[in-house]
Design brief:
Number of domains: 1
Structural class: mainly beta
Shape: globular
Number of helices: 9
Oligomer: single chain
CATH architecture: Beta Barrel
Radius of gyration: 27 Å
CATH topology: Maltoporin, Chain A
Helix content: under 10%
Strand content: over 45%
CATH class: Mainly Beta
Number of strands: 35
Length: 797
């Protein structure tokens, strides 16, 4: 359904003109956190730098802005608040359904560094290996950080590897936790989609406590549940002995079922004016039930005596995230220092339900433990800063420090029934082995891998005059597995007047290949001519993978340039436009499956008799990403009619592939026609995400009422097929979100609708829809669930 401009105008009118006119305006204290005078802690070591004075583009996202979206997921809320963030809703993508990746400025999800209170947040144990946007990446899981604990989110849209290290190629997302020693809130929200499914409830609470004369503790908790959605269509293919019943919906396509709970504390003890101890911890437990592809009753993979009507196998993922930080801040003379220790982990367990191992026959169980992925991170930091008198108008700030980081990655094998070949034949032929939808990790896949790195960094930033500020930073980082790298950054800002300023940055950056990308391995069995062969996602150290050209991964390296215009032409009006160009060399991607007869014959003749081929991660691409971010805010005072806070955002983003690495000589010698990187994978980089995104929103505050409206336009994107005739481009779509909140004392009631006009992406063409069962594209930047209606009640004190 396409939303017409008249509907957009109607939405704005409905949201911003339907309230009673007799209310007087009252600005909530937290709303003022959105002003340009907000002090920032991201992208600078200067203690009094504000948003308006930043040399790089910074977005401040308040809790009110997150809650106004109606979602209970942090990544979804950020995608609706930031035009440059893309967060599609993957489906039927194994573990990616449980840990969806987000993209900033169209780059890889692990090109964004996530911080919490300025400390590096741990990565997720999952590496994305299926057909989603963000394939090949292993990012941090934003949705493991509960909204209930967030004071604000600072988003640095600029390369920052010289300041923070690996991963900050596209930018930095810093989540600042609530830390007040007083006040608090409790709230609950419930919603459902227009189709009647996907019911969600979320309960959140937080409270600040004073501990003696010098201490404070802020606690937060959040728990909730989400039902599945299903937008699959009925089977519309020919009726055969192995097909589903014609006209029936047996497949599931949509959001998974999720149960989650989180606990957070944020503690600070001010022992003296110059000595502060601090600590925080975040714990999140999430259970996700997602779906595979339906197996019909007559399918050769089914056992009719177990599933007489066929079966839909499911993956039950259990994820545990924990982040703990402790540290102290103090001073020696004029030098401020911050020493801290950070520990974080993510465990992702795979249990398979409503499935079977066909090769075990009727002895097969229907539930399996398929293994576990684990990631651990330890970080020791010492940050120092000293004011320097350099004869300038103001003192400069010299920052420097050292960081040690240790990482460990583990793959734990599943139970034998999840991967073995039980030997049961069908019509004299071997049958698929392992638990269907996700075969278990084998002992040969399992292992424990670790590395450590040490970095030294220095920065100098200051106001060279009343109008001109500049900064420089450099970082040297040495890894135990691939060597060392050095990055640098220069930034400057010149204010021609209070109303006009220019800012610019030039930097180099890098993303270290994660342990997940280097050592993830899984094996499945394919039968070719009745003979079982292992098809492997090879870790780069696997001898069979090396025989096919796998090599040790190198860091991805970037060169970032940006130029921005900052305008404050009138009281309450703020506009920025930042153009950028990001060149990345040696980007890491996952190869195609290399399973030709030539590959199989070579492996079988050279010491790998059971291996039929596979794929591996490789530094195969160079890309250039160019774009522009435009952000504008305007506080429109309406005298006795209150105030409207307008927000406009626009992002244009284009990625071009500059080079595809040729096949390695080893692979060429085996199969001169091998396709290592295909057009489907290349399309994810160049056209898989929308080229542009536009947002216009307004919040009308009047006494006890607050009315929000946001219209968003998501640009077109394309999904390519191995057969070019089946390529499809999905058109741009407009969405409208509206909410109305009423406050009385500490109470607040909210009613809202996301995607008010029930907009869906274009339908998938029949040839790509699995006989009509998968009618919607899972790469859609706004999903494919339709309108969502919700209510929320909360109390603040």
């Amino acid at each position: 359904m396409t939303v017409r401009p008249t509907r957009i105008a109607f939405a704005i009118t409905l949201a911003l003109a339907a309230a009673p006119a007799a209310f007087a305006q009252e600005t909530a204290p937290k709303d003022r956190a959105k002003t340009l005078d907000t002090l920032i802690v991201t992208g600078t070591r200067v203690t009094d730098r504000t948003v308006a004075e930043s040399q790089s583009p910074i977005d401040i996202i308040t809790p009110e802005a997150l809650e106004a979206t109606g979602t209970t997921e942090l990544a979804t809320a950020l995608s609706r608040a930031l035009p440059s963030l893309n967060f599609p809703r993957a489906a039927i993508n194994d573990g990616t359904d449980a840990m969806r990746p987000a993209q900033l400025r169209g780059l890889a999800p692990d090109h964004v560094l996530v911080l919490v209170n300025g400390k590096r947040y741990h990565l997720g144990a999952l590496v994305n290996v299926n057909g989603s946007q963000g394939r090949s990446s292993s990012p941090a899981d934003l949705n493991s950080i509960p909204i209930a604990a967030i004071e604000r989110v600072e988003v640095l849209r600029d390369g920052a590897s010289a300041q923070y290290g690996s991963d900050a190629i596209a930018g930095v997302i810093n989540i600042v936790l609530k830390g007040a020693d007083h006040g608090g809130s409790v709230g609950a929200t419930y919603g459902k989609y227009k189709e009647g499914d996907g019911g969600k409830y979320q309960v959140m609470a937080d409270a600040g406590l004073r501990l003696g004369e010098h201490g404070k503790l802020h606690l937060a908790a959040q728990f909730g549940h989400q039902d599945q959605t299903n937008r699959a269509g009925p089977y519309g293919g020919p009726q055969t002995a192995t097909s589903p019943p014609v006209g029936q919906v047996v497949q599931r396509l949509g959001d998974p079922e999720i149960d989650n709970r989180s606990l957070v504390y944020n503690w600070q003890q001010d022992e003296t004016d110059y000595l502060t101890f601090y600590s925080y911890a975040i714990y999140t437990h999430r259970e996700t039930l997602s779906n595979g592809f339906f197996r019909a009753a007559g399918d050769s993979r089914n056992i009719p005596s177990i599933y007489p009507n066929g079966f839909l196998p499911k993956i039950f993922n259990t994820s545990n995230d924990y982040q703990f930080v402790m540290g102290m801040r103090s001073s020696i003379g004029a030098t401020q220092f911050d020493a801290s220790y950070t520990y974080g982990f993510n465990d992702l367990r795979f249990d398979i339900k409503d499935s079977l191992n066909r090769s075990m026959g009727t002895a097969s169980p229907t539930q399996f433990y398929a293994g576990i992925l684990k990631y651990r991170q330890h970080v020791l930091n010492l940050d120092l800063s000293t004011p320097l008198e350099l004869g300038l108008r103001y003192p400069a700030t010299l920052s420097y420090g050292v960081e040690w980081r240790g990482e460990k990655y583990e793959i734990g094998a599943g139970e034998p029934a999840s991967y073995i070949n039980g030997g049961v034949l069908l019509n004299g032929q071997p049958t698929p082995s392992g638990s269907q939808v996700f075969p278990g990790f084998r002992p040969s896949d399992s292992g424990s891998f670790d590395r450590h790195s040490t970095s030294l960094y220095v920065g100098l930033e200051g106001d060279l005059s009343e109008h001109f500020s500049a900064g420089a930073a450099a970082r040297y980082e040495k890894y135990s597995d691939f060597g060392s790298t050095t990055t640098g950054k220069l930034s400057a800002r010149y204010a021609f007047s209070d109303a006009v300023a220019l800012r610019a940055t030039a930097s180099t950056g890098f993303h270290a290949p994660s342990l997940q990308q280097q050592y993830y391995q899984t094996t499945s069995t394919n039968f070719i001519g009745g003979i079982p062969y292992d098809i492997v996602t090879f870790r780069v150290t696997n001898p069979a993978g090396i025989a096919l050209g796998a090599e040790p991964l190198k860091p991805e390296k970037s060169r970032n340039l940006s130029l921005g215009l900052v305008l404050t032409p009138a009281d309450g009006l703020y506009l920025t436009a930042d153009a950028y160009r990001i060149k990345i060399t040696d980007r890491i991607t996952l190869s195609e499956n290399l399973t030709s007869a030539a590959v199989r014959n070579y492996l079988n003749a050279n010491g790998f008799p059971a291996v039929g081929g596979g794929r591996y991660f490789t530094n195969a691409l160079d890309t250039t990403t160019t774009g522009i971010d435009v952000v504008a805010t305007y506080a429109w005072q309406l005298a006795s009619a209150g105030r409207i806070d307008w927000t406009l955002g626009y992002n244009y983003n284009k990625t071009k592939i500059d080079r595809v690495a040729p096949n390695p000589p080893k692979l060429t010698a085996i199969d001169p026609n091998a396709l290592r990187i295909g057009r489907v994978e290349l399309a994810r980089f160049e056209v898989g995400a929308p080229r542009d995104k536009f947002q216009l929103g307004g919040t009308w505050s009047l006494d006890a009422w607050r009315i929000n409206a946001m219209v968003s336009r998501y640009g077109q994107f394309t999904i390519r097929n191995a057969n070019p005739a089946l390529d499809q481009t999905f058109g741009a779509k407009w969405l409208t979100d509206v909410s109305v909140a009423w406050r009385h004392g500490g109470w607040e009631l909210t009613l809202g609708a996301d995607n008010l006009f029930d907009t869906y992406p274009d339908r998938v063409i029949p040839a790509n829809s699995n006989s009509g069962q998968l009618p919607w594209p899972t790469q859609s930047p706004f999903g494919f669930n339709g309108a969502y209606y919700y209510g929320r009640i909360g109390y603040q004190w």
